Amino acid sequence: MKVLLIGSGGREHALAKLIKRSLLEPRLFIAMDYRNPGLEREAIERNGMAYIVNLIDPMAIAKVVEEVSPDLIIIGPEEPQFHGVVDALREKGFTVFGASRRCAEIEKSKVYARTLMWRHSIDGRLYFKAFRSIEEAKKFIEFAGDIVIKPARQAGGKGVKVLKDAQAYLAKDRLEVKKNYVEKLFAEMDSYKDIDYKILVEQRVEGVEYTAMVVTDGETVLPLPLVQDHPHAFEFDIGPETGGMGSIQGPGWLLPFVTFDEYRKTFEIISNVLKVLQTEVREPYVGAFAGQMMLTGFWGPTVIEFYSRFGDPELSNIIPVVESDFLEILDRAANRRLSSVKLMIDESIVTIVKAIAPAGYPDNRKLASGHPVYIDEARIREIGCETLYASVERRADGKLYTKGSRAIEIVCKGDSYEEVYKKSELAVNFVYSLDGHPLFYRRDIGSEELLSNRMRIAEKVRTVYRSRVANGLLGKMLVWIPGEGVFDNPLISFVR
Amino acid sequence: MSGLLTVYAFDELWSLPNIVRYGLIALQHRGSQKYVICLPSNGVKCIEGEDIEISNYAIDHLAVLASYSDKEDNIFYVESDNDKSIAVIAERSWSKIYEFTHELLNEMKKGESSLEAFKTTILAFNKEFDEAIPSLQIITNFREVIAWRNFHGLTPLVLGSYGFDMAIVSSESIAVDILGGDVKKFLGPGEGLYMSRYLTKSFLIDKYIDCGLCLFEMLYLARHDAIINGVSVYEFRKAIGKELAQYLDKEVDIVVGVPETALPYAIGFAQKIGKPFELAFVATGGRRRSMLLGDPFEKMVAIHLKMNPIKSILEGKRIALIDDSMVTGATLKTVSQILRFRIGVRELHLFIASPPLASICPFMVMKLDVQNLLAANLSNDLAKSYLEVDSLHWLSKDNVNQVAKRFSLKFCGKCFGVDFFGG
User: Fold this and answer.
1) Does domain A127-203 have CATH number 3.40.630.30?
2) Cα separation values, A73 from A28, A343, B138, Å
3) Interchain proximity A236–B165, CB inside 8 Å
4) d(CA A240, CA B9)
């Protein structure tokens, strides 16, 4: 079976690892933006080859596809979906695993995703307001309270500003930041010509985050085990937002801080969203889909955003866990024959993924780029962990250089978090900077300390949302403005 | 005593003057006699001041600061050499601060990273000098900050954050709360945080010193709403109050605590014996921490201002009076005089929620002078007569030990005449 994988990063390396052990004996071809050494190697090992091509150019990709003539095309990242690559390939009669441009709107436009949830009264939705013009946004911000400001379009998992505003004595300082950030974000979003709304102001919620991924053929929804990502750049959940500095999974389908009821509710939300999305766009959703969820006091399982693809690094956790033939599952989904397929996993193990990034990531990609690194993969394998190559390229001199994002992901598995944590802490030592530029990773990910913190927060949040259920207030937030009335809108500040 | 605070904003959109001001206000109970703020500004500069409420400086995205209960010296130092400037802030007066700053700068000039230079210098000073190194905050003109908790673990250090935007390090969780942040970690002895715009990481200088938290943190210094090393200060104080109740051997009508610190002890005591807890005194002019004041006159002013009694509830009653500790006895003498002469209480039984203070603090965390310590100089009978109380009871060292163990805490007990409590 000839498989063409489209994408260049850690997620695609994870996909390649999952695919290559298939009994379908795939020949693996890869289309990527840059020479990812991991992907290149997987392709060669599986009797295929790697192409360097602009991944958001449907014409360029079509050329590769015609040359390879694959039985199955798997799309890793979201940008090719946004640019109609999937549609162009399907039109040519190829079998594609990946969301069409219209289906991928659920990730591309956060306004669309939120509006969809409100239009169909789907649980786990947050209050929001979207803006086309900077003036309108700044005027609204003047009276907004405890909020999150986001780009209205998916912008590489960045740009979210969480502005907790529950202290009147600091409200003015925060208002300044809100206004300046709105300006900055508008300027940044200006380069995206494919969206109408530029920014989104959303109700701020607190709790524990987790990612719920599924594979779907448009009818059957096949959940993967839950994974928890760690978006803060630095240890103990401090510092700027990243695409994810690591993730934990297991044991089994749940995470230690998510109950079975919450798990069920989460996939109920995801199935409902997939259903109404397909009704609205009148196209089947074929591919990977994920909810970036948060367990909050407001709703219980709450949607932060959707991905029209697998999470990165979340998919990496799945590599050691899956027992089924993953390629067969993707192939059946792409051929819309997913019903009756069961995903088997090893429920006894837990997995930890740690990302290693060059200093400068995520806020100064230039500073983080072009640094030579060396990975002693053999030593990492000895410890029992796997190495995934992400934002790192092989240059003509044969050496590996950082490209500004997370360079390497290390995937470890074992019987308990304690054991896997130890392994992962050993393994990260075998990634070296060759020019003295610092590399960093998060030591706290997978630690007992962080895990027990999460469990404590989840327990608190559970108490809150259960009492809201009892009082009929789940998902509601009333604000009374004397003289004007009672509004169901938490975006209004306490000071007017 | 003092409160340390670091605020590091990763986003340049922030401007910190107001945040720094409220951070200092949040630490006022740990000392409000003097404060120091160090920030990058053409190198590094430090600003000293005395009135937190009116402080207003241009502070961009990062600052390290501290508030002190005394107008003491040797608490901060700035040094520059060519293109490198650093400021060091210590949590208490430290005679080696000048040498330390100088040596640290020398290490940094050797081309080491600031963090490695800091580790090297700390280890060298720990070896060379007997004096315990206090917790430190360092700031460089390269906009790096190091906040480090001392090896002895005498005073706490907490790591917190605000969204994706800010790291906050403070002596007490309160400052993180007041700035709208979340507490993320209680740093252990020798543990610290290195912060820079593009790289922030925790580190540990591993040099085991068998010591513990200063008992006065829990007894007196921290606010009731603080969490120290994961333990609620309020709950700890109530538990101590309950323990203290076992020494009651007479009938009393009501239980009263000396404001403000002793209130949770009195609540725990009252709950244990099933008698009403009553508010007995109302303060005038805001909270002032009499024990932290060095000047005896200012101390008396503070005591007198916080002791206006609620007469009707106290008149003719048999009273169990609770206080957290007794150093010189000045506060309790004042209280007993008010209760006796101005009110006319029937009986006054005094319960101290700590063992008698026997010696000085070898770490200079507490400024104690043996000749002023009531318990070290007067017999219990003489103390009873001096204070005009019907009975005087102290919590035993064993009691403290048990409560400490229950909360999995380990305390330094040097000034009480033992090495440790709990552990």
Assistant:
1) no
2) 10, 21, 55
3) no
4) 10
B177: nearest CA partner in chain A? A167
Domain boundaries, chain B: 2-210, 216-422
- Coil vs helix vs strand at A470: helix
Between A164, A181, A364, which is nearest B162 by CB? A164
Q: What is the pLDDT, as a whole number, of residue B53?
A: 65
Q: How far apart are CA A216 and CA A99, in angstroms?
A: 10
Q: Which of A234, A241, A363 sits opposite B201 (nearest CB)?
A: A234
Tokens for A274, please give them.
């997939």
- Cβ A359–B178 below 8 Å, yes or no? no
What CATH class does A2-97 carry?
alpha beta
**Each residue's pLDDT tens digit, B297-311:** 887 888 888 889 999
Q: What does the domain layout of chain A look like in residue ranges?
A: 2-97, 127-203, 207-448
Q: How many CA atoms lie within 13 A of B389 on its CB side?
A: 25
DSSP states of A90-109 as a string? HHTT--EES--TTTTHHHHB
8 A C-beta contact, residue B134 and residue B174: no
Contacts of B11 in chain A (CB under 8 A): 161, 177, 240
Task: Give the phi and the psi of residue A113 in degrees, each rounded to 5.
Answer: -60, -45
CATH class (in words) of the domain with range B2-210: alpha beta
CA A464 to chain centre: 27
Q: Is B161 left (phi over 0), alpha (psi -120 to 50) or beta?
A: beta
Supply the ipTM of this predicted assembly. Answer: 0.93
Query: Per the structure block, which two tokens stand in for A484?
Result: 């004007």
B173 φ, ψ to 5°?
Answer: -60, -25
List pLDDT tens digits, range B133-182: 999 999 999 999 999 999 999 999 999 999 999 999 999 999 999 999 99
Q: In terms of CATH architecture, what is A207-448?
A: 2-Layer Sandwich (3.30)
The C-alpha atoms of residue A371 and residue A452 are separated, in whole angstroms, by 36
Give the residue numbers in B contacting A (CB under 8 Å), as ranges: 10-11, 13-15, 18-19, 22, 159, 161-165, 167, 178-180, 184-185, 197-202
* Residues A27, A47 contacting (CB under 8 angstroms): yes
Tokens of residue A234, six digits = 């630095």
Regarding the domain delimited by B216-422, which CATH topology (the fold level of the hierarchy) does it fall under? Rossmann fold (3.40.50)
Looking at every residue in chain B, the average pLDDT score rounds to 92
pLDDT the model gives residue A159: 85
Q: Using a CB-CB distance cutoff of 8 angstroms, which residues of chain B are in contact with residue A241?
A: 164
CB contact under 8 A, A162 and B179: no
